[in-house]
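Cross-posting from the chemistry board since nobody answered there.

I work mostly on the small-molecule side, so proteins are not my area. We synthesized LOHRUJSQ and want a rough idea of how it might sit in this target. Sequence and SMILES are below. Is it possible to get a predicted 3D structure of the two together?
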Amino acid sequence: MRNKPIANVNADLLKERKNCSFDIEELTNLIDGGKNQTARRREIENMLLKNMPFDIIPEECLSAKEKYENAVRKSVALNKIGVELVSQVTKAKELSDLTLTLRRVSDAYFREVTPFLLHLGMFIPTILGQCSDEQVAHWLPLAMQLKIIGTYAQTELGHGTFIRGLETTATYDERTEEFVLNSPTLSSSKWWAGGLGKTANHCIVVAQLYTKGECYGTHPFIVQIRDMDTHMPLKGLKVGEIGPRLGFQTADNGFLVFDNFRIPRDSLMMKHAKVLKDGTYVKIARHSKLTYGTMIFVRVLLVSEMAFNLSKAVTIAVRYSAVRRQSELKPNEPEPQVLDYLTQQHKLFISISTVYAFQFTSNWLMKTYHTVQANMKHGNTDALPELHALSSCLKAICTSDCSAAIEQCRFACGGHGYMISSNLPSLYAFTTATRTYEGDYTVLLLQTARFLVKTWEQVELGNAVTPMVAYLARHQNREAWDESPEGIIRAFEAIAAGVYQTESVRSVSFGQSDAIKDVMKQLSDLYLLYWSLERTGDLLTTLKSTLGSYDGRVYERLMEEALKSPLNQEPVNESFHNEPEPQVMDFVSQQHKLFIGIASYYSYSMTALWLWDILTKVTSELGVGKTDRLPESHGRAVFMSVFNSEMEKSVSSLSAPLQAVLRQLVELYLYYWTLEKRGDLLLVLQSTLGSYDGRVYERLMEEALKNPPNKEPVNESFHKYLKPFIQGKL
Ligand SMILES: CCCCCCC/C=C/C(=O)SCCNC(=O)CCNC(=O)[C@H](O)C(C)(C)COP(=O)(O)OP(=O)(O)OC[C@H]1O[C@@H](n2cnc3c(N)ncnc32)[C@H](O)[C@@H]1OP(=O)(O)O
Ligand SMILES: Cc1cc2nc3c(=O)[nH]c(=O)nc-3n(C[C@H](O)[C@H](O)[C@H](O)COP(=O)(O)OP(=O)(O)OC[C@H]3O[C@@H](n4cnc5c(N)ncnc54)[C@H](O)[C@@H]3O)c2cc1C
């Protein structure tokens, strides 16, 4: 069934849509993979959208804690339906279509991300990719039915990129047939795992495996971290939320610290390596990097994620550009739609074509991934290095290009694009993180470079190379290729473009009308029309954007959203009437002035006494009249050290409370001047990473511990939503 026409659609948008030269339903089918798939997708989408609770207050107006609780409430409703749908599916293809539809609806349903993202995106794939058959049979049903909630904790405070440098240890104890997990240093604290802070009760932990006194490198373990009934963290673990971040606010990214935490032997995920009861290590994998498999899978997935996110951003920007009128070009004529400006089209059309490039390449990459996986099942890992190189560079390029393109879309929407309600800031915050996680941009490009250099060596030796890199051997292409990073990117962009071209031509080469074939060549138009017509229902709930709604009622929606803000629920905020007048003494800035004054007074008097004693010595050393040349920093250091030591001497006979106060003054004085004059950048930069003393990990952990979600061991949403859901009582 096609979408029903919507009343009150903006006239400019209607006019643009009337220019469509082909059957949009045909294109929708093409993109979905066939008529039946379109129908099934719409059926699921409609069912989900009808049954899920919506936000009462806009998500962006909630506090961090409320945002999280709201995300749990919505996730549980979505998961309930999802689990039921998944249980009805029998074929692998149906399951993958369904998973994709659920992921897309979930994307539309949350302004940010669900706390279950890692459960679906990495926990389940790691069970599939890293567990023995026996382990899969045990863990997979529990995870699929959400009887357990998991995440993936690889990154630590000290290491993310360099996996071999991870410090968490898993030491096998053959007496008890257990592994003992430890975080030997602060920098070994697990950091970042999504859903770990408050939601997950299980976690995949990547740790250095020790048995019989030898280290066998990093291995994945599946670990229960919270009590299944009370949700309290288990003894031997410190777990919490890492604190506010640019995006991912509702993903409760967490930290995890182990103190002699014991787990059974079969917690080791044993597809690629085993530890026998007596502690003997047995390697099964044919390739040493197979434990990195989940990362490859997610990198592949991210290409289509980027296509989808950019498609949303550019749809918002294009629709808004059709509705928005600005500037008087000719006197007494209507202001033009901003879409008609060539410069505006430049911003938008590049993004549109990029979406298609990503999507077609992603389809191809996913197929390649499955082919390589199938070969590996039969023990053939030959294609793995190339898959790693390809997924690395395509992930790096598409995440980077996508965030840049979303910024362009935001620019294309002018001031209103900066509103959270336009959804462009959230889309940007989400996609810019993807450039870093699952392998940093530069690092992944370097991995690809490593592969290319090795291939180049083979080419130079006259050896055969795979078709994907065969262009390296073709003389005429050497001009496009040089050893600079830009050269490598160019070469791989050419490959991506090649794939894109071949795939798009292949996709439209049969069954399609001439009109569609023509339009496929005009990617920009295609993209606009596809997204305009493909969606079911009110596109606002899918795009979650005031600017990009299907009906183009941009100003109405901006005003409606503004009126929903809690600050607008009362004409005059109570702080206007009720806030008691503070004593000026209560202002921190005032205390700052006063206390520093007091501390300085003590400092000067102590130093004056000391200075008198050594004046003769100082002047004889520096020469009379030259003392004014003492650098300020030296003088400052003198004041500090003298104040400190002299105060200590003179306070020893005083009462304890007075001693305490005077010592505080010393500390204050030292602290103040350290920050003020000695250039402690923490104060200036307000940054845990940029502090003068370099105590980065200490500061990150200190800040995380101050984080309000960590003030309660179990969030109330566990009792309200998660527990009834896990126990099937919801
Ligand atoms: C929609 C779903 C959303 C899910 C949300 C996800 C949220 C975020 C989650 C996360 O971020 S999880 C953590 C992800 N972490 C990373 O991605 C870390 C990045 N680092 C790495 O991948 C690796 O450490 C490295 C950079 C590839 C380096 O690894 P290593 O030091 O062990 O290798 P090298 O010495 O550089 O290379 C040796 C050799 O191995 C090959 N190789 C490396 N990785 C792989 C692989 N994955 N598969 C196959 N082969 C690999 C590499 O090319 C070298 O080969 P040779 O040149 O020696 O032949
Ligand atoms: C939103 C978000 C969610 C995340 N979720 C998870 C999660 O669920 N589970 C999990 O385990 N992790 C997660 N992570 C962590 C993420 O995987 C890492 O942050 C990422 O892999 C980058 O590693 P890093 O932080 O160590 O960066 P670093 O490696 O410290 O990078 C810092 C800089 O150093 C450069 N650099 C590093 N190594 C090299 C090199 N060899 N050559 C040249 N330059 C180099 C990088 O290019 C970068 O510019 C998440 C991160 C974010 C931002």
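Reply from a structural biologist on the board:
Welcome over. Reading the output above for you: Residues 584-678 form one domain. The CA atoms of residues 8 and 608 lie 81 Å apart. Happy to explain the token format if needed.
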